[in-house]
């Protein structure tokens, strides 16, 4: 079990990092595997949508995202492993070839094959004189914090158009607009009743929580009492608030990490100058 966990959490991220470093980009074999997973996920999503009588576009899109999502998780895991190895001062080559290096050391031979560093190659391990916290790490936390703050501002700006008393009602889905050439924003054209009169409007399909209903069915919407044309699926305001809270938490966390890593970097520089 330990070997399996090590293979998933350490060995594969190190191999992915070394492969990307050697090629300069994500190798084609990883892209091919991700594409195969996306194709399989799209096929399974289409089959599930047919059996469950659900929206096939959403199911297929969810399956297509599976491949890039797995590849992104592998990249994130590789980044985390590289950070830990950097702190420990260990290179990914040593992690992959530790057993083989021990065996060669017992025979009195050195590293060979692709794990042997060629002359003039920059070592992947952190030397003792190098600072533990590089400036790019501080800049990374600052960038993520700034993006999260901008996201919170954008959410509040978007919600300002729907501020005021709202009313929840049931709307009839008249038609479905998939956008020009199927690439635009998908919208549902709905009809609902407000004080005895019928109002026609449209809402974004991606704002609906769960499976998007097909034309001829009904869905719950919320509209501004002062302007019934400002309507959207029920629960959109709550989900927007949750997204804002999440982005706000990310901003605060990254800001704290930026301050801590910046302080460690400055302390390291001061100690180096004092020597």
Count structural domains: 3
Low-confidence stretches: 99-108, 110-123
Give helix and strand order, one letter per element, not per position: HHHHHHEEEEEH
The percentage helix is: 55-70%
N-end to C-end Cα span: 47 Å
Instruction: Give me the count of strands.
Output: 5
**What shape does the CA trace take?**
flat
Kindly estimate the percentage of residues that lie in beta strands according to DSSP.
5-15%
Which structural class matches the secondary elements? alpha+beta
CA-atom Rg in angstroms: 27 Å
Put simply, the count of helices is: 7
Task: Give me a quick take on this structure.
The protein contains 7 helices and 5 strands, in the order H-H-H-H-H-H-E-E-E-E-E-H.
Architecture overview:
- There is one protein chain.
- The chain is of the alpha+beta class and 275 residues long.
- It folds into three domains: 2-115, no CATH class; 135-158 and 239-274; 165-234, OB fold (Dihydrolipoamide Acetyltransferase, E2P) (Beta Barrel).
- It is 58% helix and 14% strand.
- The protein has seven helices and five strands.
- It has a five-stranded antiparallel sheet with strand order 3-2-1-4-5, with no helix packed on it.
- β4 and β5 (231-233) form a beta hairpin.
- α1 crosses α3 (56-88).
- The longest helix is centred in the C-terminal third of the chain and has 39 residues, at 236-274.
- The two termini are 47 Å apart.
- Mean pLDDT is 78; it is low at 99-108 and 110-123.
Brief descriptors of the model:
275 residues, alpha+beta, OB fold (Dihydrolipoamide Acetyltransferase, E2P), 3 domains, five-stranded antiparallel β-sheet, 7 helices, 5 strands, flat
